[in-house]
What we know:
It is built from ten helices and eight strands. By secondary structure, it is of the alpha/beta class. β6 (151-153), α7 and β7 (171-175) form a beta-alpha-beta unit. α3 runs parallel beside α4, α5 (104-120) runs parallel beside α6 (133-142) and α9 (223-233) packs across α10 (238-252). The protein starts with a strand and ends in a 5-residue tail after the last helix. Bound molecules: nickel (II) ion.
Amino acid sequence: MYIDTHCHLDDEKLKNDLENVVNGFLAAGVERVIDIGCDEASSLLVKEQAEKFPCVYFAAGFHPMDIERYDAKAEETIIGLLKHEKCVAMGEIGLDYYWKKDNKEDQKEKFARQIEIAYENKLPINVHVRDATGDALEILKQNKSKLAYGGVMHCFSGSREIAAEMLKLGMYISFGGTLTFKNARSALEVAAFVPDDMLLTETDSPYLAPEPVRGTVNTPKNIPHIVKKLAALRKTDEEKIAENVMRNAKTLFYKLK
Ligand code: NI
């Protein structure tokens, strides 16, 4: 009944124990996960993982931190992967000025380019933004006509105003472990305000494990902690949140079965 719309099962911390990781999240009621690629090699690996496990789907693309390796050959590989029956999105793509400030123009160019590729391949985008909200919003607005297949702001931590702008562009808002952290003030406000039909959940495993397991290696089995927090914030029950989120995920990521 639960879905994790953003995790990295190809990470060193998870990939060698994948059988156990998958059994663990299935036992916790997490029926679907989207395994997210960050560059050419990781996109190829998440595809392999999706081919091995029926509950695993994937996204292919270049994370802003990895775009130094973005070239014509890598792009061709990614475009090939997008056509796979279990590839449900292009991502993760976006801007990250927290880790890298010296290649902003290159980040912006590759972000816009990948939005275009996603559109040409009729797929939604999975967007990562850190310390670059203004520029990200500008690029999304400039490319509004190419957002016909929608997208999601992953691990959203912006303000209510920014969330409203993203929603206007048809972007879903996804919440993960940071929502359960003590300093999550703006995320709490946004999580209470996002419309039922635009809400998604994720873990970003192996990073950002939610309370009360913060600091451990995160896996998709921790989705129920995030759903519990969302239910409390939105004054509804967990089952209703889980149902809504699953429906939303299947609407946005229409290749999900
Ligand atoms: Ni991620």
